[in-house]
Design brief:
- By secondary structure, the chain is α+β, with helices and mostly antiparallel strands.
- It has 26 helices and 23 strands.
- The strands form 7 sheets. Strands 2-3-4-6-5 form a 5-stranded mixed β-barrel. Strands 8-11-14-7-15 form a 5-stranded parallel β-sheet. It has a 5-stranded antiparallel β-sheet with strand order 19-20-21-23-22, covered by helices on one side.
- It is globular, with a radius of gyration of 30 Å.
- Residues 72-79, 514-523 and 679-721 have low confidence and may be disordered.
């Protein structure tokens, strides 16, 4: 498919990494490389020549001119053009093309630039192009100055197209197909990532398609952050080490009279923000002003920016901090005590829920077609100006409660951003937009929890969302249902089909075991249930246990790194009955399961049935109104059924937890009495028996003390045989060992 009738209009690319041009990833942006491979207008040798010409224009032009004359003598033709490939900006006022990173400025007739009026704003930012140069002499003060002018300019990225092309293309795909296509366009294999990781990739894209959208992501190393904010599009974004940030670089540099990054870039990602202690104490106040107003006053001038601000960093000890109400921002080296600074951010993404990304094993299938990256990123950029349209769609379906109007706008922009990426044509079902609202809700509530710790009098974590379609509170159920739908390629790798799913349920096994550093009566219960209850949403999601018709196994799908950890633990403890189905441990299968009383049926989201009825009766107002009432009633009933099932599942899971705890206590009591009446009791307690009161009335104190001592003496054993899902280092080591053993067996 092409976006226009020109040969340069192709928007799909395949075999990208196999193409010789891919070798230029250190020289060119990924977008232009995608474009060149997709359109195949120039060979590898020609591109090499253009790049080489640009490195020393004067020398290479003279050399080229000499060779050209020799050819003319032999062939009597003059079909030769001296071309360079580079990164340029346009000074339209002076009719000059500026070669960025070089000393050259070329005269250009603006009329030769191949661009439509609707895309003129593209020229406000630098771009990649192949430029044809001819010698141009100018007489100044009696002296002849030799330079060059542009005789032809070719963009080497998809620029001159209408955003309607992008919207029209989306209408040809289902949501699941488009979702996977976007992930593949980013270069990743959709079946290698959990639902949270995929959505996290999408939220990283929102700053590209939404002006002044401010985003925080804290988490692990090697999760692809640099790729998204450095390599994805050097034209629109920049990744800068926070310790190299300065006010001139950010706002305006008086020494060279140039605008700072807030004007010249769409996205500014500040890396290692956690570990930076700014020497210039004015940076944080200036940054806070920009976050709030979108502009900054400097030396009597007001600088209006367009850039979205992204804060990135790595943090540790997360679950302990969340359980103990220790603010995660306390780990910042630069202490920012004013919570209003963080309140200006729209979304806080828990990057610790992403596994480390292997840049080789997680790549998409190179032989399959995907969108050319330049077309995709330029399409998102064009949508920066359409906020009101997508926000009106959100307002049609979703009502956010428990927050002021200004802060409602922040969460609405997150949902609108996801619509720009997943539904640019505006065609979205109520269930789908409720899922995106849930994703946005989780990111905002995590931020509100930190703000509440910093200033409980001002901030409360009371935010929730309701569906205007069903008049019900939005929960995680539709999100979990979509997780199954989006895992179709993962299932197909194991010869499983979505159409054969009998039911699924939420599996909380391995999620609520005591952490290895706790005692039997811990002061703080560091478990998934306790953390989720405190945050008022499921930060730590369950696994989804999926039953396929005619299959004796249950398949457990991880929704984030937490689920992956639980899968590794279950495999470690029961590997005779458990098999992992991919090296990432996103999916395992097990023979050991008991079907709960209440399960979920897989739903396929579609408005086709109701839309068809409305279309057939569009001229009959009475019938159309009746259809609307029936549709809403039907959806209300489904929502109530889902809520009822969810509540019953939670009650059942609580009963299971209580039974497990009772069994653990019984074992400990029996162990205690067995030791107390044995002749070796003193040696078993390693000399601690003298601390136990002999008074029978103090037996409760004796038991409590024994439990604490028992746990302390068995810590090493527990660490080996009773892994906790927060033991990331041990779980990753186990996973690597299993994968290595599997590969050795295959060899």
């Amino acid at each position: 498919m092409k976006i226009n009738d020109n040969d340069e209009g192709k928007i799909f690319v395949k075999d990208l990494r196999k193409d010789p041009l891919y070798k230029y990833t250190n020289t060119l942006d990924l977008g232009p490389i995608n474009y060149l491979v997709a359109n195949k207008k120039y060979s590898y040798e020609e591109i090499s020549e253009f790049i080489n010409n640009a490195q020393n224009i004067n020398y290479n032009y003279k050399k080229f001119n000499k060779e050209e004359k020799n050819e003319e003598e032999n062939q009597k033709e003059n079909n030769f053009d001296f071309k360079i490939l580079g990164y340029f900006s346009l000074d339209s006022k002076n009719s000059e093309l500026i070669f960025i990173g070089n000393k050259y400025k070329f005269k250009i007739d603006l009329s030769i630039i191949p661009i439509d009026k609707e895309n003129l704003q593209v020229l406000n930012m630098p771009f990649y192009a192949v430029v044809t140069l001819v010698e141009h002499s100018v007489v100044s003060n009696g002296a002849t100055i030799y330079s060059y002018k542009v005789s032809n300019l070719e963009f080497i990225e998809a620029i001159n197209f209408s955003v309607n092309d992008y919207k029209k293309l989306r209408s040809e795909y289902s949501t699941k197909e488009w979702f996977d296509l976007v992930i593949a366009t980013l270069g990743y294999n959709p079946s290698k990532f959990t639902i949270f990781e995929k959505f996290n990739f999408l939220t990283r894209l929102i700053p590209y398609c939404t002006e002044k959208y401010n985003y925080i992501e804290l988490g692990n190393f090697e999760t692809g952050k640099s790729f998204f904010f450095k390599d994805l599009s050097k034209r629109f974004s920049t990744l800068i080490s926070a310790n190299k940030l300065s006010i001139p670089k950010l706002i305006y540099d008086n020494s060279i009279n140039e605008n700072g990054l807030i004007v010249t870039k769409n996205v500014i990602a500040m890396d290692e923000f956690v570990n930076t202690n700014f020497t210039d104490k004015d940076i944080i106040p200036v940054l806070k002003t920009y976050l709030e107003d979108g502009e900054v006053s400097r030396d009597g001038h007001t600088i209006k920016g367009i850039a979205s601000i992204v804060l990135l960093g790595n943090i540790s000890n997360i679950e302990n901090n969340l359980s103990n109400s220790v603010c995660l921002f306390d780990q910042f080296k630069m202490k920012i005590e004013n919570p209003t600074f963080f309140d200006k951010f729209y979304h806080f993404s828990p990057g610790w829920k992403i596994s480390s990304i292997d840049p080789y094993s997680n790549l998409c299938n190179d032989s399959e077609e995907r969108l050319s990256l330049d077309f995709f990123i330029n399409s998102l950029t064009k949508l920066r100006y359409d906020d009101s349209y997508y926000e009106s769609i959100v307002d049609k379906f979703i009502q956010f409660e428990g927050t002021s109007s200004g802060r409602t706008k922040r969460i609405v922009r997150t949902v609108a951003g996801l619509l720009k990426i997943l539904h640019p044509d505006g065609n979205v079902t109520p269930e789908e937009i409720e899922i995106y609202a849930y994703v946005a809700l989780c990111g905002r509530k995590l931020l509100l929890d930190q703000l509440n710790i910093m200033n409980p009098a001002r901030y409360t974590n009371s935010l929730y969302a309701t569906s205007k379609t069903t008049d019900s509170v939005i929960s995680s159920h539709n999100y979990y249902n979509l997780s199954v739908l989006l895992s179709e390629s993962l299932f197909s790798n194991s010869n499983l089909s979505l159409s054969d799913i009998e039911y699924y349920y939420c599996d909380y096994n391995y999620f609520d075991r005591f952490s290895t550093n706790s005692v039997v009566f811990p002061q703080t219960d560091i478990t998934a249930n306790a953390i989720n209850k405190k945050l008022d949403f499921e930060l730590i999601e369950p696994r989804l246990a999926i039953k396929f018709k005619g299959d004796e196994h249950i398949y457990k799908l991880a929704l984030s790194t937490y689920g992956i950890n639980a899968n590794v633990i279950e495999y470690d403890e029961n590997n005779d009955n458990v098999e992992y189905l991919n090296d990432n441990f996103i999916l395992i299968k097990s023979k050991d399961f008991i079907k709960p009383n209440y399960v979920h049926k897989l739903k396929h989201y579609s408005n086709v049935f109701w839309d068809k009825l409305k279309e057939e009766n569009k001229d009959n107002t009475t019938i159309k109104n009746l259809i609307n009432i029936i549709e809403k009633t039907n959806k209300n009933m489904l929502a109530l059924i889902d809520e009822n099932i969810e509540l019953k599942n939670k009650v059942e899971n609580l009963d299971i937890q209580l039974n497990e705890n009772e069994i653990k206590l019984d074992k400990l009591f029996n162990n205690f009495y067995l030791h107390k009446h044995s002749s070796n009791f003193n040696s078993n307690l390693n000399g601690a028996v003298y601390l136990l009161p002999t008074d029978s009335n103090s037996e409760e104190d004796s038991i409590s003390l024994f439990f604490k001592h028992y746990n302390r003496n068995n810590t090493e054993k527990n660490n080996c045989n009773n892994l906790n899902m927060f033991d990331y280092e041990k779980i990753n080591k186990l996973r690597e060992e299993y994968i290595k053993a599997k590969k050795n067996n295959q060899n």
